[in-house]
Amino acid sequence: MPMENQTLLHKVLKLWFRQKSDGGLEAKLGYRFKDPELLAHALVHRSFLTGTDLPYVSNNERLEFLGDSVLNMLTTEYLYKTYPDDPEGELSKRKSAIVSGHACAQSSKEWSLSEYVKVGKAEEKLGGRGKESILADAYEAVLGAVYLDGGLEEVRAILNKFHFPRVQEIISAEDFINHKSELLEYLQGKLRTVPEYIVVDESGPEHQKVFTVEVHVDGRVYGRGQGGNKKKAEQEASRVSLEMLLAEAAKAEADGSASSPTDKAVVPKPKKQKQRHVGLP
């Protein structure tokens, strides 16, 4: 892209941001940008560039990459100081929840970030402005922009105001319980095996797909779960599987049986298996 076009893009971004937000987003953040182009850039989803001559790097993905690293570092610091007696494993579990896309998307609502994100016309029609993944990416991109404009302390202040006060809510929410990790730990500890996840069905339009996943343990089918993406379907299938395994183990113990909890299949095997992978979280 010629230098003059890049300069024009920068001017357009600055002008658009000041007209669009009238300082509103900055007021919500509690931070006034010295270079408003950075914040404007953080709000440009890649779909907005479709059909334009603007280069791909004009989207917010590089800022998202930076913001993700800053968020991870500050979250690690926060957890280290807040939970001085917790082992590394517990801190890692909390961190995974706090920096997750769902947590970021929820925090972005305090800024009404969906009002400011720029998406393409096709993405807009598909409800992209409110998509969790787009909001989460924009949230991290904004953090990256703040870091470049004002430094680490400004990002820390924003997280202390909007994100970290939600930590207890985040780590206690059902959405953030890592059922895959719990199932893996149980199977490795009790049965010396690992689960296998199989996608048995994908349905719905491209922008509203529903995935169905089954958990297989030593060749036998256990829980089945559905979700808007494979990860959510796997989490649900893991939850159901662990409940079944624990129930069978309890029954076997009560009956004085020495049989393995995996002796019985819970769900019939699918006739057509599409995608398999070993169940590491």
- The parts where pLDDT drops under 50 for at least 5 residues are 264-268
Termini distance? Answer: 42 Å
Number of strands: 4
Measured by DSSP, the beta-strand proportion falls in 5-15%
Which value, in Å, is the CA radius of gyration?
A: 23 Å
Within CATH, the superfamily of the largest domain carries the name Ribonuclease III domain
How many H/I helices? 12
| CATH fold node name of the largest domain | Ribonuclease iii, N-terminal Endonuclease Domain, Chain A
Silhouette:
globular
Mean pLDDT: 83
* Helix-strand pattern: HHHHHHHHHHHEEEHE
The major sheet is characterized as: 4 strands, antiparallel
* Number of separate structural domains: 2
SSE-based structural type = alpha+beta
CATH architecture of the largest domain: Orthogonal Bundle
- Regarding CATH, which class of the largest domain? Mainly Alpha
Helix content: 40-55%
Biggest sheet strand order reads 3-2-1-4
